[in-house]
Amino acid sequence: MGFTLEGPVLEGALVRLEPLAHRHAAGLAVAAEEDRSSYGFTWVPRAAEVEGYIAAQLARAAAGRLAPYAQVERASGRVVGATAYWDPRPWPTGEGLCAIEVGFTWLAASAQGTGVNTEAKYLLFRHAFENWRVARLDLKTDARNGR
After folding, report:
1. Is the Cβ–Cβ distance between 100 and 134 less than 8 Å?
2. Residue pair 78/90 in contact by the 8 Å Cβ criterion
3. pLDDT tens across 47-76, in order?
4. Which of 106, 102, 107 is nearest to 127 (CA)?
5. Is 119 helix (H, G, I), strand (E, B) or coil?
6. pLDDT (tens digit per residue) in 105-121
7. Cα–Cα distance measured from residue 39 to residue 50, given in angstroms and rounded to the nearest whole number
């Protein structure tokens, strides 16, 4: 019995991570068009590209390679960005998940520095370690990204 990558709703005090769906498109489009000057090392879709972005993420999910999320700010209910589990690597026996990566993350300028991203990562890490019992979780960033 193998592992199926499916990310459940994860909720903290600041952020709720909801499995990405087309219903998040309008909120992501608004979030993506806030001050874009902080996206130097992160690709973020333009508002007109959000539907295609969601379709591409959902296609990756259907292939079992990604579990994409919309990041929803709990206080306001606004969609403020996206993140995902991706690149699941099973144990050599095929039983369970050995490792996974967290990535494809971006946040609206107004959500940066608010604790939303920190809590989102905590929720993703906790779920991966406690529920999926991964031995390894990868988090990568560009070496030039001083933030």
Report:
1. yes
2. no
3. 999 999 999 999 999 999 999 999 999 999
4. 102
5. helix
6. 999 999 999 999 999 99
7. 16
